[in-house]
Amino acid sequence: MENPRSYSLLALLLMSLACSCFVNPACGNAELRALMEMKSSLDPGNKYLSSWTADGDPCGGAFEGVACNEHRKVANISLQGKGLTGKVPPAVAELKCLSGLYLHYNSLSGEIPKEIANLTELTDLYLNVNNLTGSIPPEIGSMASLQVLQLCCNHLTGNIPTQMGFLKRLSVLALESNGLTGQIPASLGDLGMLKRLYLSFNQLSGPIPVRLANNPSLEVLDVQNNTLSGVVPSGLRRINEGFHFDNNPGLCGTGFSSLRACTAWDNLNINQVDPSTPNANRTAPTNVPQSATFPLACNQSDCSRSSSRLPQIGIVGGVITVTVALMVVVFVGVVRYRRRKQKVGNKSDTSDDRLSIDQVKDVYKRSPSPLVALEYSNSWNPTNAAQDCNGLCHVFLQGSKFNLEEVESATQHFSEVNLLGKSKFSAVYKGILKDGSLVAIKSINKTSCKSDEDEFMKGLSLLNSLKHENLVRLRGFCCSKARGECFLIYDFASNGNLSQYLDAEDDSCSILDWPTRVSIIHGIAKGIKYLHSNVTNKPPIVHQNISVEKVLLDQHFRPLILDSGLLKLLADDVVYSALKVSAALGYMAPEYITTGRFTEKSDVYAFGVIILQVLSGQRKLTSLMRTAAESGKLEEFVDPALEGKFSETEAARLTKIALDCTNELPDSRPSMASVVRGLNEPSCG
C-alpha cells in the first residue's frame, strides 16, 4: 500500500505549480507572446498597435487598449474604432482570463476563429461593424460565461448554430445585417436570460419558433427584412412594441398591428415542428414525401400507404382548391380597398439596414466595459424623469404641448402618403398641425434611444436650447410609452434637402444659380459656427454627421442644418451606424480612423466637402475634380450647368476655403469662426 503522505506531497507540489502562474514571468510571457501574435494579425502594418512591444509589460499601462486583473492577467482588450485591417487570430484563445474583447467598428476581415470558444471567462464579445466572413463557429456555444455577443454588420453566412442554445447567461445576441440563412433555431428559446435578439436584414426563412416566442425574459425581437413565413406565435404579443417584423410578407397572425391575418393556407403550417435544437428528441414521420407541408393527423402506425388514404387525399385537394379561390377573392378586395383608402406615392428610403443593438446593465463587472452600459426598463418613458404626465406625451418646448393624439392626427395616423423618408433609426412624416402649419415629425423607436432617462432628457434639453436662423427649429417632442417611440416635431422645409439639387440634369429646374449657392454656403457656415460657439444656455456642440442630406432648404432657399445635437439622444450602436454611413459618403475626417474621436475640426472637414459639392454640382467628388480645384482650373471644376454664369474671384475664394477645410491635418484646418470671417470679406469679382 502506498504511503498517503506521498499523495499529500504531490498535491502540495501541484498547488505550488498552479499558484506560481500568478507570479512566474514565464506564465506572463505566454500572454505576451499571444499579444504579439494578435498584433501581427490585427495590425499587419504596425500602424495602430505600435505600443505593443515584445519587451514591454502588457499590465504596465503602455499597451494601448489592454487592461489586466488583480493577478496581472490580461482581462480586457478594447480596440474599437482603431482602424484595424487584419484578422482575428486563433492566438486570442491563449488569454485565458480575458473577460472583455472589443474589436468592433474596424475593418477586420477573415473568419471568426473557432479557438475563440476557449475563452471560457469571456462575458462580452464585440466583433460588430467589420468585414468578417464565413460562418459563426458552433464552438461558440461552449462559452458559458458569455453575456453579450455582437456580430452585426459583417458578411457572415450560413446557419445560426443551434449550439447557441447552450449560452445560458447570454442577454444580448445581435446578428443583424449579415447574410445568414436557414431557420431561427428553437434552441434560442432555451436562453433563460436572453433579453434582446436582433436578426434583421439577413436571409432567414421558415417560422418563428414557438419556444423562442414563449421565452419570458425576451424583451426585443427584431426579425425585419428576412423571408420568414408562417403564423407568428401568440406569445410575442407580450413584448408588443419590442417585436419588429416588417418586410416579411410570409408572416401572419392576429393581435399585431400591421400584420396580415392568416388564411387557411397559412394555417396548414401552424403545427410544424420547431427548427432543430441541441437536445431535440424527435422521430421522423414515415412515408411522408419531403415536399409535404401539411401536419400529419395520424400517428406513424396509421400512415402506411393504402387505398384508405384516397378519400383523405380528395378531401385535402378540395380544401386546398376552395382555400385558393377564397384567397384570390380576399386579395382582390384588399387591393381595391387600399387603393381607395390612400394613394401610395414614391418614398425615399436612404437606408437598407437599421441597427438597434443595446448595451445591457450589470455586465462585465470585474473590469468596466469601454462602452456605456444601458438597459431599457419595462416602464420606459423618458418624460417621467421630468414629471409624471399621466400617460400622455409631455412636451416642454417653447410653451407648446403635444400629445400622441395630436401627432397621430397631424400625420393621418402615420399614413404612407405622409411618409417623407426613412433613415437607419427613424422615419420622417409630413404633418399638419391644428393651426394649419406644416411640420416634419421624426419618429424614433425606443430601441434606438439612450435608455437612461436622465441622459435622454438632458439631450432633449440641449436640442431645445439650439436657436439659430440656420438650424431647423424644433417645436416640441412627444414620447409615447404605449407605442415605444419618441417623436420630434420640426418646422417643415418646403424645398427639401440640398442633395436633391446635386447631379441635376442640364434642363432641370433643380439647378441652383450662383447667388443661391453662395448664400447656402454662407448659411451653413454660420449655423456650424453657432454650434461650435459657447453662448448662454448652450455649450459648444460638435454635430458629427453633417452632409448635404442634413441641410434642408426653406421656401427662400435658406439653409437649415438638421439633426443638430440629435446624436446625444441615440444609443451607441445607432451612432456607430450613422458614422459608418458618413464615412462611406466621404464626410468623415481622416483622423477619426486613428483616434475614434470627433472634434470641431471634424465638422470643418465635412463643411469643406459640402462646399466642393455645391460648387461642382456633384455629390461624388473624383480625384480629377479635386486636382482641378487645387490647380485653380475653375472651368473644369465649377458646375458646367451654370454655363459660366458665376464670379471667378468668388469661386476661387470658396475653393480655397474648401481645400483649407479638407486639409488632412486637423490642426491645419481653420475654425468655423475664421471661415465665416473669410466668407464675409468683400469680393471684387
Automatic annotation (TrEMBL):
GO terms for molecular function: ATP binding; protein kinase activity. InterPro entries: Kinase-like_dom_sf (IPR011009), Leu-rich_rpt (IPR001611), LRR_dom_sf (IPR032675), LRR_N_plant-typ (IPR013210), PRK1-6/SRF4-like (IPR046959), Prot_kinase_dom (IPR000719), Ser-Thr/Tyr_kinase_cat_dom (IPR001245). Pfam families: LRR_1 (PF00560), LRR_8 (PF13855), LRRNT_2 (PF08263), PK_Tyr_Ser-Thr (PF07714). GO terms for cellular component: membrane. The keyword Calcium does not apply. It is a single-pass membrane protein. This is Proline-rich receptor-like protein kinase PERK7. The chain crosses the membrane at residues 313-335. Keywords: Kinase, Leucine-rich repeat, Membrane, Receptor, Repeat, Signal, Transferase, Transmembrane, Transmembrane helix. Residues 1-28 form the signal peptide. Residues 414-684 form the Protein kinase domain. It is found in: Membrane. Its main location: membrane.
